[in-house]
Amino acid sequence: MAAASVAASESYLLFGKGGWICGILAEMLSQQGKSFRIADSRMENRESVERELDEVKPTHVLNAAGVTGRPNVDWCEDNKETTIRANVIGALNLADVTFLRNIHLTVFATGCIFSYDAAHPIGGPGFTEVDNPNFFGSFYSYTKGMVEQLTKCYANVLILRVRMPISDDLCARNFVTKISKYERVVDIPNSMTVLTELLPVSLQMAKKQLTGVYNFTNPGAISHNQVLALYKKYIDPAFAWKNFSEEEQAKILKAGRSNNTLDTTKIERDMPEVKFNDIHTAMEGVFQRMKVNVGK
User: Fold this and answer.
1) What pTM did the predictor assign?
2) Which tens digits make up the pLDDT trace of 146-176?
3) Residue 245, φ and ψ in degrees, nearest 5
4) Which residues, other chains included, contact 170 with Cβ-Cβ below 8 Å and sequence gap of 6+?
5) pLDDT at 204
6) How much is the CA Rg of the chain, to the nearest whole Å?
7) What tens digit of pLDDT does each residue of 184-234 get?
8) Contact present, 22 and 65 (Cβ < 8 Å)
9) Residue 14: enclosing H or E segment and its boundaries?
10) I want to staple 127 with a disulfide (CB 3.0 to 4.6 A). Which of 94, 131, 160, 204 is the partner?
């Protein structure tokens, strides 16, 4: 009886209206029969956020808002004020007002704040939650790394570092869709987040009131070539691609790109009830489901 009462009292306010991850979270909450609302207020407007929080009185807030840039993070290089307003001012506003109201806040952040280095080489140990950002090659990553250092100071906040998010379809925001449209790709192993597997875990973590920083990726790393090979195997047998070096890539981009592996020991330890598939196993599942979805 008590457990049912607790479950019935859960309510969620989601930030990121019209966004990809926000939409998936809303669908999941709906399927679970949870009470939720997608916020109308904009995070940079502190007063309107406070009014909406006081009206809805959620037990949990999920922040999937923020600027990533369209078509990619190069956009942020030319729109720094807008990027700051959303990724820094807005994020800090939400952390502060939820803290003052004792509301648990889950932030869907990014792991694109690290770059392979001497202590964390390709194939070596991954970056952990206690490592400080070491990648500042794009304004997007610079703002996200800065805001993580500040928001993690709030005792009510759960920060989930998402990387190269992947869905079971070919929507425009899917990392697979993006790289399948590139003429050439850099073949470097990276940690990635399979949303089908991990977004349900985020709701479990919020319900458990976990706080602090977590690397929110499938264990291990997978290269761009390995991902595209699966795309060719399951989706388009005629597909072909070319590689080029990071140096060659840099010549056509305004901003650098983060490449890294994140260590998932902490999330696996704190969520023992979850079976985390390594990224290679998870990606096989993604493309098997994608093949069915694309064929519909």
Assistant:
1) 0.93
2) 999 999 999 999 999 999 999 999 998 899 9
3) -85, 165
4) 176, 177, 180, 235, 290, 294
5) 98
6) 19
7) 898 999 999 999 999 999 999 999 999 999 999 999 999 999 999 999 999
8) yes
9) strand 11-15
10) 131
Phi, psi of 50 (to 5 degrees): -60, -40
How confident is the model over 53-83, as pLDDT tens digits? 999 999 999 999 977 766 677 888 888 999 9
DSSP 107: E
Residues in the chain: 296
* CA end-to-end span of the chain: 42
Residue 166 in tokens: 């992947």
| 228 Rama class: left (phi>0) / alpha (psi -120 to 50) / beta | alpha
Q: Look up residue 93 and give its two tokens.
A: 């506003």
Q: Name the strands in the sheet holding 157-162, side by side, starting at the edge strand that comes first in the sequence.
A: 35-38, 11-15, 60-63, 104-110, 157-162, 212-215
In the chain, domain spans: 2-165+192-221+260-278
Q: Which residues pair with 149 in a beta bridge?
A: none
Q: pLDDT over 70 for what percent of the chain?
A: 94
Helices (H), the chain: 2-9, 20-31, 46-56, 74-78, 80-84, 91-100, 139-151, 175-180, 195-207, 224-234, 246-250, 265-270, 279-295
- E strand or H helix that includes residue 186: none
Both tokens of residue 73? 């993070």
Looking up tokens 């976990």 gives: 210
